[in-house]
Amino acid sequence: MNAGLEDVVVAETRLTEIDGEAGRLAMVGRPVAEVAEAGLEAAAAWLWEAAGVEVEQGEGRDARSQGIGSQGAGRGSQGDAPAEHPASPHAASIRRALGAARVEAWAALPPLPRSLDGMDALMLALATSPCDREDPIAITATLGVAAAAWAGRRSLDPDPSLPHAEDLLRLLRGASPSPLEARALDSYLATVVDHGLNASTFAARVVASTGSDLRSAVLGALGALKGPLHGGAPGPVLDMLDAVGRPEQAPAWVEAELAAGHRIMGMGHRVYRVRDPRAAVLERTAATLPRSRVPLARAVEAAAEAALTAHKPGRRIRANVEFQTAVLLDALGIDRRSFTTLFAASRVVGWVAHVGEQRRTGRLIRPRARYVGPRA
Questions:
Q1: Which end of the chain is more exposed for a tag (fewer CB within 10 A), N or C?
Q2: Set 41, 166, 305, 322: catalytic member
């Protein structure tokens, strides 16, 4: 028996390769830094094509969305025509389809009061959506606009001409971001789009293995992501940075936390024994933003690494993706309560790919449990 299924191989995948010992991460054969540079639409094109996911081309959606994006259609920071990444010829069509689907999804959203838990808001929006249960574009768009609507700003409508990340940031903040800010969020969304059989992705594959529909599989994944052991750490990282205050206070603060038996948020990962490669990508991106707290985060990370090495010799506890996620999203002016919902708006692309891949196996996931109760 292996509780938690750690190191148990249950599937073959063409999507994401993880080397936890060496700290390497690649998606469809491309290093994570390259995926981050290419952006979310290119990442979706690569993953969905590898998984055999069929996507409706953008023409029909474009026709339905004509004239609906009232806040400046055609004024994207990337220009009027969607740019195609040289290695991903389908990225432009996915961008167009997502733009039109955001308009449709926005119009169909139910009330999402801020008093509702953010993940519950996303599940409500998806469960009540009139979209096709098997449409990956509509499901991806629904989670994105639901995250923005739940954040409490509905002063703008989606602009179908914009890249997905730029429009989501615009809706989240109620104002157009700078090209640098839009690029930073796009890099984040692409960086975290998939990461092997994490809890939410495995949940999606379990649901898909029963023959259920794509929307149900994504709802199952959202329920798993809601748990604090999977999707809830970026916000507390900011609480930690707030408490430390200044870089020179980091060593004493970390030592005091460890002496009190508290965890250092954003440190440690079930897979990586070195620094999470996604943390390096996000740190470089965050450093380009004028409001980022990268110097403070670097000081806290260094102090935490040194202290944890001294307190727990033999264990390699390094920064994970959530550490730098908090720094990057905070620099973009995104409320920390929205961190997990925004993560879901990216990871849905990976969930869709894994559902497609699971369906190709046609195998029901059905492990066994060892009985340890009383005998008849």
A1: C
A2: 322
Q: What is the pLDDT of residues 299-327, one digit of tens each?
A: 999 999 999 999 888 788 888 888 899 99
CATH class in words for 231-331: mainly alpha
Q: Which among 269, 305, 354, 357 is annotated as catalytic? A: 269
Q: Output the pTM of the full model.
A: 0.91
Residue 269: active-site member: yes
pLDDT above 90 (res 357): yes
pLDDT tens track for 238-269: 999 999 999 999 999 999 999 999 989 888 88
Q: What is the pLDDT of residues 95-126, one digit of tens each?
A: 999 999 999 999 999 999 999 999 999 999 99
> What are the extents of the domains in the chain?
11-59+89-226+340-361, 231-331
- The residue type at 244: V
CATH number of 11-59+89-226+340-361: 1.10.580.10
56 is catalytic: no
